[in-house]
Design goal:
It is a single chain. The chain starts with a strand and ends with a helix. The protein has helices at about 50-70, 95-105, 120-125, 135-140, 155-160, 180-190, 230-245, 255-265, 265-280, 290-300, 305-315, 320-350, 355-365; strands spanning about 5, 10-15, 15-20, 40-45, 85-90, 110-115, 130, 145-150, 170-175, 195-200, 215-225, 250. The protein contains 13 helices and twelve strands. Helix 8 (about 255-265) runs parallel beside helix 9 (about 265-280). The protein is of the alpha/beta class. The chain is elongated, with a radius of gyration of 32 Å.
């Protein structure tokens, strides 16, 4: 049923006038008077007056079956969690989005999700997540925090076309990409000024953080948080507390410094893992600890999509320099090996009957 507003029009009745008022007629019109009728104008509200109660009922209907069935295996509630509860929206419900959403739910937060595909509906329900295939419907639920879990390559398109104005004006936007300068500049350019922006990089994933997040690094940069509004400050703090509660090692760092360091750590790790994976190395009966570590490296890096690896290269301006440095280092190492091999062959062929500077070079290599 809709709430009807009556626009006050005078109703002429014989020798005077009286104001129209809602009567017992269901149409919202007043009963005609003897002296003629000035038609009553009705205007429907933009939303039904019981909009909030309907939404609450929908939420209760969704949660009731899950509560009756008991906790989902492997997704039990953390009864010791003292983090204030947030309403968190996840944009991009792929592997990493599901990974974060599951932990959010376990702490008792209300979690919404949206993605390009309807195939996540059943999985979201199993995890206790409300799923929306329409991004406008997702935004109209007004999550306090929106976490962008899109791939690096699709982020620009998602942010550019996202209906931010359907959210509350002071919503906190969080990204979790593996590169940081790119999303920072993108969001500062595209996201309305009223929104807060928090750039983060949980430096772990479904494999390394499967059992526990204890001691795992969590980088964050408070790019734009309205310090004049205590509500904004508290909400950003409470979101970061989710990771603190899980035991993460919290690392405040600028996006620029993150990308500089990541090129020398994360990108090198993925590059070496990809190269070794391309060699199709296999486990043997005489594996050393070092070789086992290399096999684990292959598993950890090659389980991620090549799209992620390409994004680490494409959207980190330091990656090209790192790749060239690796290539130069490999060339120097290879040259040193072959130089020493040539000296050994030369000594076998000519013995001590060689120029003095060659003999000195051979002695230097031996030492």
């Amino acid at each position: 049923r809709k709430k009807t507003f009556l626009v006050g029009r005078a109703l002429t009745t014989g020798g005077g006038t009286r104001r129209s008022r809602p009567g017992g007629m269901g149409s919202g019109c007043t009963k005609p008077g003897r002296g003629g009728v000035a038609p009553c104008v009705a205007l429907d509200a933009a939303q039904p007056f019981d909009f909030e109660s309907k939404k609450q009922k929908e939420k209760n209907d969704l949660e009731a079956p899950a509560e009756a069935a008991g906790p989902v295996p492997g997704n039990q509630r953390d009864t010791d969690c003292d983090v204030p509860k947030l309403k968190i929206g996840v944009v991009g419900f792929g592997t990493f989005g599901q990974f974060l959403a599951k932990r959010f739910v376990s702490q008792g937060h209300t979690v919404l999700a949206t993605s390009r595909s309807d195939r996540y509906q059943d999985l979201a329900k199993e995890l206790g997540v409300r799923y929306f295939s329409n991004v406008d419907d997702f935004c109209e639920e007004h999550p306090e925090v929106v976490v962008l879990c899109t791939s690096i390559l699709s982020t620009e398109q998602v942010v550019t076309n996202f209906p931010f104005l359907r959210l509350k004006r002071n919503t906190l936007l969080v990204d979790v990409l593996s590169v940081k300068e790119f999303p920072k500049k993108l969001m500062l350019r595209q996201v309305p000024e009223e929104f807060d922006i928090l750039c983060t990089h949980p430096m772990f994933g479904p494999d390394s953080g499967k059992a526990s997040w204890e001691g795992l690094p969590m980088m964050f940069d408070r790019v734009r948080v309205n310090a004049e509004n205590p509500v904004n400050e508290e909400r950003c703090h409470n979101f970061l507390r989710i990771f603190e509660h899980e035991g993460c090692r919290m690392i405040p760092m600028t996006c620029e410094e993150h990308d500089r360091q990541a090129a020398s750590t994360q990108f090198i790790t993925h590059t070496v893992g990809r190269m070794l994976g391309d060699m199709q190395l296999e486990s043997t009966k005489i594996n050393t600890k070092g070789y086992e570590s290399l096999l684990n490296l292959i598993d950890n890096t090659c389980n991620d999509s090549f799209e992620l690896y390409y994004g680490l290269f494409m959207y980190n301006q330091n990656a090209t320099e790192t790749l060239e440095a690796m290539e130069r280092s490999f060339d120097r190492t290879k040259k040193r090996l072959f130089d020493q091999l040539h000296e050994v062959l030369r000594e076998q062929l000519f013995g001590d009957d060689q120029p003095e500077h060659i003999l000195k070079q051979q002695k230097k290599l031996k030492s």
